[in-house]
Amino acid sequence: MARVSTDAQELARQIDALKTAGCARIYLDKASGVKGTTRPGLTAALDHMRSGDTLVVLDLTRLGRDTRELLAIVEDDLHANGRHFRTLDGIVLDTSDDMCGELIFTVFAAIAKFQHQQIVKGTAKASTPPALEAASAAALAP
């Protein structure tokens, strides 16, 4: 499963990594991670998967944007149907292994959410004019 958020982004790096990992089928989405966005590639992948199959993504952020969404997909759509989940980033998270894989997945999902929040916060701060930021800081001062 490969996903990018905008049409300007490329899927090639993810596709190459998935092919190298031996994925038999690769489903694609070009959709933002905003809650409620339809993801036809993910839907098709989940519809095609059978018990024992593994959904593979480059990293957690390609599957979902927040911990709740990641947990819902992995627990409700995959594990409840005897299916597994694996990432290819440096960690190589694999929930088919044992309970330890599931525990690590939960922790990494929380870390991914934290990292995303930090990026959003940094982007918002970078786009705030210094005068407005100073005024906001003054308004918050005791």
Question: Can you tag this structure with a few keywords?
Answer:
globular; 5 helices; mainly alpha; two-stranded parallel ribbon; 10% strand
Explain what this protein looks like in three dimensions.
This protein is mainly α and about 140 residues long. About 50% of the residues lie in helices and about 10% in strands. It is built from five helices and four strands. Strand 3, helix 3 (about 65-80) and strand 4 form a beta-alpha-beta unit. The mean pLDDT is about 80.
Please describe the biggest sheet, giving its number of strands, its sense, and whether it closes into a barrel. 2 strands, parallel
- Helix and strand string, N-terminal first? EHEHEHEHH
Largest beta sheet: what is the strand line-up?
1-2
Tell me how many strands there are: 4
Uncertain runs with pLDDT below 50, 5 residues or more?
A: none
* Distance between the ends: 49 Å
Helix/strand structural class? mainly alpha
Radius of gyration: 18 Å
- Oligomeric assembly: single chain
Tally of alpha and pi helices: 5
pLDDT averaged over residues: 78
Write a concise synopsis of the structure shown:
By secondary structure, the protein is mainly α. It contains five helices and four strands, in the order βαβαβαβαα.
Topology:
Layout: E1 2-4, H1 12-20, E2 28-30, H2 40-48, E3 54-57, H3 67-78, E4 84-87, H4 99-126, H5 130-140
Parallel strand pairs: 1-2, 3-4
